[in-house]
Amino acid sequence: MNDNFRHQGLRLKLVELLRNKGIANDKVLMAISKIPRHLFLDKAFLDFAYQDKAFPIAASQTISQPYTVAFQSQLLEVKKEAKILEIGTGSGYQTAVLCELGAIVYSIERQKELFKKTSLFLPKIGCYPKKLIFGDGYNGYKSEAPYDSILVTAGAPFIPKSLLNQLKISGKLVIPVGEKTQIMTLITRISEKKFKKIEFGEFKFVPLLKEKN
Ligand code: SAH
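# S-adenosyl-L-homocysteine complex -> structure
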């Protein structure tokens, strides 16, 4: 697949922009400099791929804004071999960034069309998540729990209990919480029953939908 010097140059510019916007984690910036974001969009949209913007993909969904992907990835403090569950595979861009950071990634998507498309696409760019799952992320993915981290990439009206239950002790949940706009929220599991919550700024995501919506 075509990834040439021009694309690489555009990515380095994007990385500089993200650094200027406050993303300081070098591993995250390095991952973004490596993942060919233009290949996640249709060819006609090449010029948009390296702008710091969300962009429409199939099934009325969006590929998250690079700043948002970087911000969420930074909050996770991904360690090599960390077991991570992502809710909302979408285009697979965030999935690819997590894989590049060395995580063992499980990712759930509720739109069949996107699930299929992304399952076929990721191996083509050499990205191999441990498992892509077609299903409802509100339930997490119990058969592989507990996880070092869980990352929700759609706006959640509330924090689903099942996700809290599927965290390891000292595990982290990064979840944007809210209806129209969301507050980026980091929850750390301190003990079996105790959780610590820290809130960050406002973001805007497509909604985390329930089965019938
Ligand atoms: N991480 C993606 C972001 C895609 S937007 C990327 O980098 O491209 C959010 C995604 O969450 C959409 O694909 C949407 O279909 C999915 N989604 C919404 N509700 C969901 C649910 N309940 N379970 C799983 N996925 C869901």
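# post-check
The pocket of S-adenosyl-L-homocysteine is lined by residues 61-64, 87-88, 90-91, 93-94, 108-111, 114, 136-138, 153-154, 206, 208-209 (CB under 6 Å).
The CA atoms of residues 57 and 63 lie 6 Å apart.
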